[in-house]
């Protein structure tokens, strides 16, 4: 069959490789783009080519940046003595949306995994150890996911940093905002109970 | 907050305007693209710009094409005496995937709608009437969606073509392939019963 035309077919095939889009939704997306050629399709193509050309990893923290060092690493108002360790860029963005962390980051780029042969060097852990010494860091905040892989990696980092003497902390575990006990897993409830806080004056 | 960088932020905002992607999945898609800059992101940007530049509507049937007349309209092996009327390009592609229609198409570009002020001229219905006379068409197959709007439009087209004397047909209604009666709506079951076929020799 000759439909859709080859170039559109190729575009659909590329779109279908995006996470969250299958062949069907890629077709819908491409038809939508074609309908909005001027307002969406051309700007999107330009923005994509532009980002592909300019984006690079920050040489210090691993954040995405259009400059050799990212805006967070070069911002003098950010607290250099605190480093927040995250698994990937999406987690860094999530922390920034939270808006209350004023230190700097270290993006691991994944978690340790024997199965996928991901070792400490792949995760920029030696670079983290180097930063502790070079930048006068006083606290490392581990903001890794509360998954088995995340926690394994957190333990590994604790060991790797033991000799530096830096203070190490981790995000608190507990009931999330708006969380209903009935819908929470048992592990979260246990953790929240163990970490319960005395209400002063009560 | 300064994250993600402005150009990536702009790209995420554009991606989030695609149907089927929200802000969260647009972020995931963009991070995926950045990770696969060479294999996916640049080819996608190029394909998109290329399609945006080259794609146009076939002057006869309304199909997408990179030439003034689309490959189906210019293919001498396609039966010019049969025109299949569809609502939009996605429906044309669906018919072509079916693979058994050997005639040509007429893409309406929507359905009649008083609410959205879509009239017969917006749907290329006058162009359809013109084609009946010009191209020696003997049968018009209405392949409109089995929705209220689709069926209203089908009735309007029947009226508009009445004077031409052309034969008009519509896709059969009934139980879809693999359909289970228990999961079908009552309308489909009634339609399938009304259109039941005698099994010869039984």
TrEMBL record, chains A, B:
GO biological-process terms attached to the record: DNA recombination; DNA repair
The Toprim domain, residue ranges: 81-176
Zinc fingers typed C4-type, residue spans: 58-73
SMART domains: TOPRIM
Keyword tags: DNA damage, DNA recombination, DNA repair, Metal-binding, Zinc, Zinc-finger
Single GO MF descriptor: zinc ion binding
Gene3D superfamilies: 3.40.1360.10, RecR Domain 1
Domain of life: Bacteria
Cross-referenced InterPro entries: DNA_Rcmb_RecR (IPR000093), Rcmb_RecR (IPR023627), Rcmb_RecR_Znf (IPR015967), TOPRIM_dom (IPR006171), TOPRIM_RecR (IPR034137)
Stated family: Belongs to the RecR family.
Role: May play a role in DNA repair. It seems to be involved in an RecBC-independent recombinational process of DNA repair. It may act with RecF and RecO.
Listed name of the protein: Recombination protein RecR
Lineage of producing organism: Bacteria, Pseudomonadati, Pseudomonadota, Alphaproteobacteria, Rhodobacterales
Gene: recR
């Amino acid at each position: 069959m000759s439909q859709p035309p080859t170039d559109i077919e190729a575009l659909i095939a590329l779109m279908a490789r995006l996470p969250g889009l299958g062949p069907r939704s890629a077709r819908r997306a491409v038809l939508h783009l074609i309908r909005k050629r001027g307002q969406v399709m051309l700007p999107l193509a330009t923005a994509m080519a532009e980002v592909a050309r300019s984006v690079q990893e920050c040489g210090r923290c691993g954040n995405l940046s259009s400059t050799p060092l990212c805006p967070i690493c070069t911002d003098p108002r950010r607290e250099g003595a605190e480093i927040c360790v995250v698994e990937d860029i999406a987690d860094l963005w999530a922390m920034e949306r939270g808006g209350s962390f004023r230190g700097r980051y270290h993006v691991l780029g994944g978690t340790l995994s024997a199965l996928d042969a991901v070792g400490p060097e792949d995760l920029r852990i030696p670079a983290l150890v180097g930063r502790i010494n070079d930048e006068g860091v006083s606290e490392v905040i581990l903001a890794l996911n509360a998954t088995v892989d995340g926690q394994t990696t957190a333990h590994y980092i604790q060991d790797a940093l033991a000799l530096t003497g830096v203070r190490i902390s981790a995000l608190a575990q507990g009931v999330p905002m708006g969380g209903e006990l009935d819908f929470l897993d048992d592990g979260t409830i246990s953790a929240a109970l163990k970490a319960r806080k005395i209400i002063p004056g009560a």
